[in-house]
Every structure is written in structure tokens, then in C-alpha cells.
Amino acid sequence: MSTSDKAQPVKIELRGVSVHTRHGVSVAEREVGQRMIFDVDLNLDSCLATVNDELEGTVDYGEATAVLLEAATERSYLTLERLVTVIAGRLLEMSGAGSVRVRATKPEPPIPVVMDGASVEVTLSGESAPADGE
């Protein structure tokens, strides 16, 4: 059996997903909100779509984006650490990926210096997935 006949590992990337959110420590961040940029890696240990070219053998990135959007907008968190952990846990659960990395960036964080953004990133694997408790 050749390599092309076996399911291969795959990384699916979602880059620069821009969402209006209401996360942060300050009241203004939670009430007015702000734009946040998300980057996601879904690491599939074995992707059948590499062999059979069928959607059922991989992750639908439209569905993954919908899960990200719902988790990012349904409630407000004080910390980006909790937000990215919740998003990663949901994506891990829906995708069956071996691991998921989520990065959230505030392009204009509410601090008095000029910067390209403030980011928090988390990587979860099947063994480390936390419960989605609030």
C-alpha cells in the first residue's frame, strides 16, 4: 500500500477571522465591545479526505468557523485565556482533531501605548480538553 492510499495527517488553518466581541476587564470592553482577530489550527492525526476526497473524511472549516463565532459572541469573558480555552475545547469536540490551537488578538488593546496587538494562545489536545463549564 502506497503512502497516497493511507489517510495522512493534516493541519487545517483558519487565519484572521475578525469578530466583534465583548471580552475584557474594563466595562467599556464588555459593553461597547471591540474587534478581535482569531487564528486557529486544527491538527488531524489521520484525515480520510486525503484518500477519498470526501468532506466526511475531514473538518468542514465553515462549520468550524461557525463554532468559533458562536463561542466568541454568546457571552463575555474577563480574560482572553478563558475565551481561547472555551473556543479550543469546542473545536476539539466538534472536529475530532488530535489537537487544536486558538489565538485571540486584540488589535487595539485598551492600553496607552502603540502596538500591533495583544494576543493569548492556547493549545489543547484530546487528553487535555477541559470541560466547557462557565
List the helices and strands and how they pair.
Elements lengths: L7 E14 L5 H5 L2 E14 L1 H4 L8 H13 L6 H16 L3 E8 L11 E8 L9
Antiparallel strand pairs: 1-2, 2-3, 3-4
Helix pairs in contact: 3-4
Summarize the structure.
It is built from 4 helices and 4 strands, in the order βαβαααββ. The chain has 134 residues and is an alpha+beta fold.
Structural commentary:
The chain has helices at 27-31, 49-52, 61-73, 80-95, and strands at 8-21, 34-47, 99-106, 118-125. With 134 residues, the chain is of the alpha+beta class. The model has no long low-confidence stretch (mean pLDDT 90). The protein has a single domain (3-125), classed as GTP Cyclohydrolase I, domain 2 (2-Layer Sandwich).
